[in-house]
Amino acid sequence: MKRLWLCAAGAGLSLAFLVLHSRLSGPSNLRDSIFQISWRTKESLYRLDVGWPKRSERFTGATFCVAVDSLNGLVYVAQRGDNIQKVLVFTEDGYFLRAWNHTVDTPHGMFAASTLHEQSVWITDVGSGSFGHTIKKYNSFGDLVQVLGTPGQKGTGLNPLQFDNPAELYVEDTGDIYIVDGDGGLNNRLVKLSQDFMMLWLHGENGTGPAKFNIPHSITVDSSGRVWVADRGNKRIQVFDKDTGAWLGAWNNCFTEEGPSSVRFTPDGKYVIVAQLNLSRLLFLAAPPVGNIGSCSVISSIQLADQVLPHLLDISGETGAIYVAEIGAKQVQKYIPLRSYFPLFHV
Ligand SMILES: *[C@@H]1O[C@H](CO)[C@@H](O)[C@H](O)[C@H]1NC(C)=O
Ligand SMILES: *[C@@H]1O[C@H](CO)[C@@H](O)[C@H](O)[C@H]1NC(C)=O
Ligand SMILES: *[C@@H]1O[C@H](CO)[C@@H](O)[C@H](O)[C@H]1NC(C)=O
C-alpha cells in the first residue's frame, strides 16, 4: 500500500521544468500565462522519508490533519472514520506512542502548542454531533482541558462563541489564538482571541475583496508578526498584521489552478509551503521580507501521485521536516530537507 504512493513524489521537479520548456515554444497565450508566474523548480529542497512511520497500520481512517510538537519530538495525527482511534501520537522518529478517540467527532485541523510548562494539542471539530462545531485543547495524553465554541451547535455568535466548521487555528506562545472559521458553513471569518478567549479583532465577511474570505482553510503566523491565511475558495493567500488585524496584501498568481489548502513556513523563514489538495501538489514559495508581501514566486514543488490529496501539513521547528496529511492516500508522510539547503539543521 505504502509503496504505491512513493514513486511519483519528487519526480515532479524535473517534469515541471521540462513542461515549462516545451510550452515556451507553444501558442502565445500559453506562453503569456506561463510568464505571469515565475517558476524556478530546478532544485529539490526536500525528499520523502520512506521510513516514517515505522509501521503504518495505525492509519485506519482518512487522515485530515497533523501537528508537530517539535519541543518534545511528537507528531499528532487526526483521522476520520467509524469505530477507530481518532488521534494518533507518534514520535518524530516514527514510533507509535498512543491514541484516543473520546470527545473527537470529525477532526479537521490541528495545532500543537507546547511550551516549556505544558504539552498540548488543539483540534478543530467540524462534526454535527455533541462534540461538533468546537475547537478543543487536549494534553498530550488526550485529556480534554478546554473547549471553545458551543458543542453541538453551529452558529455565528461571538458571545458565547460559536463556530460552523472551524478549519484551523494557530496559538502563540503568549496564548493568543488565531482561528479560521471555516471550512464551508455559515462563517467565513478570521478571529483573534486573547489567552482568556476575548475577541481582539475580527474579519468576518464572506466575499472576494480584501479581508473577505471564501473558505479560509489554514492559518499560520510568521516571525515578523504577519498572519497568513489560505483563502482556499478565493484561490489566494491573504496576509494581516497580527497586532492590528490590518490587511497587508494577497497572493493570487501562484494559485490560478487551485486554491491553497494549507500554509506553513519553514523554520528558517525562507519558504512558504502550500498544499494544493486536488492537484496533489506541494509548492515552495519565496517568503517575502518584512512588510508588503509583493507578488508570489514558486521556487520548487513536489508532485505527489494522483489522488493522494494533501489536505493539511505541519513542519518541525527543530528539523524542518514536513509532515503531510493525505486524505486520499490515508496516511501521513514525512519529507526531510536536503542538507545542502538547510545547513543549520541537524538532520
Ligand atoms: C474508540 O476506539 C476503540 C478502540 O479502537 C473502539 O473500540 C471504539 O469503538 C472507538 N470508539 C468510537 C466512538 O469510535
Ligand atoms: C460566500 O460567497 C460566495 C460567492 O462569493 C458564495 O458562493 C457562498 O455561498 C457564500 N457563502 C456564504 C456562507 O454565504
Ligand atoms: C476538489 O475536488 C472535489 C471533487 O471534485 C471538490 O468537491 C472540491 O471542492 C475540490 N477542492 C478544491 C480545494 O478544489
Walkthrough of the structure:
This protein is mainly beta. The protein has a single domain (59-335), classed as TolB, C-terminal domain (Neuraminidase, 6 Propeller), CATH 2.120.10. It contains two helices and 26 strands. The chain has helices spanning 12-24, 28-35; strands spanning 46-48, 62-69, 74-80, 87-91, 96-100, 107-112, 120-125, 134-139, 144-148, 166-171, 177-181, 189-193, 199-203, 205-206, 212-213, 216-221, 226-231, 236-241, 247-251, 262-265, 271-276, 281-286, 298-303, 310-315, 322-326, 331-337. Strands 1-26-25-24 form a four-stranded antiparallel β-sheet, with no helix packed on it. The chain has a four-stranded antiparallel β-sheet with strand order 2-3-4-5, with no helix packed on it. Strand 25 and strand 26 form a beta hairpin. It is globular. The protein starts with 11 loop residues before the first helix and ends in a 10-residue tail after the last strand. Residues 1-38 have low confidence and may be disordered. The site of one 2-acetamido-2-deoxy-beta-D-glucopyranose has 6 residues, from loops.
